[in-house]
Amino acid sequence: MQKDFHYYATYCAAYIAGYTHEESLDIAYSAQFVDLCSRTYLAKIKAPLSAATTQLQLELMDSRLDLMGLQDITRIWASFHFLPYDLYAEKKHCSKRYLNKYRLICNTNGELVKETVGLAKKTSLQSVGIAMHILADTWAHRYFAGTPSYVINNTNRYFFELLPDGKRPVRFRHSASAPDDLEHSIYTNTIHQPGENTIMNLGHGRAGHLPDYSFIKYEYLPVWNDYEEIVKDNPHDYMHAFAQMVYAMQCIRCGKSFETHLYAWDDIEPYKEDIEVILQKRQLDSCADWKAFGEGLTGCEIPDFELSKHEQEYVAASEPDNSQTFLGKFIIAALAQKSMVTNRIYASKNMLAGFSVDYAKKGFKGIRDFIGLVNERSRDNDEAAEN
């Protein structure tokens, strides 16, 4: 997904879920910031590099592709953008190496979605925003995995866009500077490289931005699905993502248990036709439409996303006070999410995300950046005990 959904649509969902205008803005900012919180950015503000929730193209190009480098990539992309659906999935007649990658395929309504939403309860609005980014991406990024894999993520010539008057072959190209051509179904994707672990085969790179466009419907033949056709209906999926975000944030606000396969259909019914128009509109960027819808919904102005908005507050604060700033709370929430997902992958005896320790049970061991997370949890536990 793009800024149109992660920022503007998330704002709208938060407001419908009962958050105030100001709270909805903080949630929306955090959701969008997931796509921008790179190591390059964190180094700039002298923040813990382990809190990175994305990688820039230049960072990926410089990434090591040995075991530790691949584990580092997987920790970021599987935790925040391609949440695994079933870490214990079975598939006949395949190697353990292939099975480990197969188990990282993203899909909706998995147990890790439930845990992700659970992490956001009684914590911070930043944590809520992170959770909403991840939940939404399970709908957009389903059927791809957040680890480099030619077998899992590659596409072939059988790739068609489904239009009202029939289907049209998708033509992929590799010009990063040219916008996608909607009129002729010409889209940019990563360069074909048959190497299993090349970063060109990370996530949905081989499918270009198609998973990130709300209007598109397409079909293709992934190898992991035994060359059986998969149809991806983004308008349908994005509507479900919106309704599930509203439901999830209602659960977080009220302290209720989040359950998979439930959606706030009744709450979004008054707005459903307007949302469908936005989702189905054939355009590369729907920010303006979502912004207009949100401002009509709340009667308040939605400012444009500004990356540097919270930087000075964080930079001016010293440790440990910086953990209470906007970005400090985001960093703690990001470390908690990455720790949880990495631990679940490791507990399933899958080493693609590396070694992990359950801090809640065994205390701190390992990367220094996570000391802040452990201290924050200890402080929360002490406050809860006092109350």
Count of the domains: 1
* Strand fraction: 5-15%
Helix count from the secondary structure assignment? 17
The first-to-last residue Cα distance is 40 Å
- Main sheet, how many strands, which sense, barrel? 4 strands, antiparallel
Mean pLDDT: 92
What Rg do the Cα atoms give?
Answer: 20 Å
Instruction: Provide the succession of SSEs.
Output: HHHHHHHHHEEEEEEHHHHHHHH
Structural class by sheet pairing and helices = mainly alpha
Uncertain segments are none
Spatial strand order of the main sheet: 2-1-5-6
Number of strands: 6
Shape call: globular
Summarize the amount of helix as a percent range. 40-55%
Can you characterise this structure?
- The chain is mostly helical and 387 residues long.
- The chain has one domain (3-152, 234-386).
- The chain has 17 helices and 6 strands.
- The strands form 2 sheets. It has a 4-stranded antiparallel β-sheet with strand order 2-1-5-6.
- β1 (159-163) and β2 form a beta hairpin.
- α1 (3-16) runs parallel beside α13.
- It is globular and about 50 Å long.
- 46% of the residues are buried.
Write the layout of secondary structure elements.
Elements: H1 3-16, H2 21-33, H3 39-44, H4 57-61, H5 67-80, H6 96-102, H7 111-119, H8 125-140, H9 150-153, E1 159-163, E2 166-169, E3 171-173, E4 186-188, E5 217-220, E6 230-233, H10 234-254, H11 265-268, H12 272-280, H13 287-298, H14 311-316, H15 326-347, H16 359-362, H17 371-386
Parallel strand pairs: 3-4
Antiparallel strand pairs: 1-2, 1-5, 5-6
Keywords:
387 residues; mainly alpha; 17 helices; 47% helix; globular
